[in-house]
Amino acid sequence: MLKNPHTKEDFSILTKKEPEKSLLLNLKRNAGRGFKGWITVRHKGAGEKKLYRIIDFGQEKLNIKGKVLGLEYDPYRTSFIALVEYADKDKRYILAPHGLKAGDEIVCQDKTELKLGNRLKLKHVSVGTAVYNVELEPGRGGKMAKGAGTFATVLAQEGKYTQLQMPSSEVRQVLQECFASVGAVSRPEHQYMIIGKAGISRHKGIRPTVRGSVMNPPDHPHGGGEGKTPIGLPFAKTPWGKHAKGVKTRNRKWTNLYIIQRRKKK
Predict the structure, then answer these.
(1) Strand, helix or coil at 21?
(2) CA 180, 182, 185: angle at the middle one, nearest 5?
(3) Which of 35, 140, 177, 219 has a C-alpha 20 to 30 A away from that of 238?
């Protein structure tokens, strides 16, 4: 029987080296059962042991050139990461853009060449350029377009704002003093990956999930009844009795002021 060729990704571009020990953290897991033995976070638990890589989202080493030592896998995110050594011998992890290779040089400056991996202020980025790891507030580090294969496109420079088309197709304006990196985030094929078998989900720390309608009445508002009984409610509910399916979950945030055009629903 032939194996499905889409269940695994090609990691041949990654550098065969151990992670940088000085940039690793052991995070405490809070998923699964609490100290009383009750499930505090549903559908999560166990999984492979993993260490967190400290990522420099702001790339604070201004005006210092850095050399890419290698590309690495990060178990805590969908994209690959790059280990960069700067001229002062300081090493940092950054989000790797698609196409970056070991040996490439990058720099973070107010104004610099529009080269893959370089980081600069939005006011110096030309229209039509793809950027990622975009700041929302100056000096606070990258907040937007950080997932595998994502990028934002510069649409216009207007006043003190730069208009960006986000990966969701939403158009928003960001202060021109914010930094952004040139390119698109690495590992664009991640969205096409097929899990393949239940064991892979368990290795990732994802426990089985079942429908509320097959549970007992004490466990879910949809539970109970014989066979495929309807939920018997005017609207779907969460396990805690709140409205589900089709409910807006976006909070009224101060960043809504900068949205020019909402995302296009598919």
Answers:
(1) helix
(2) 95
(3) 35
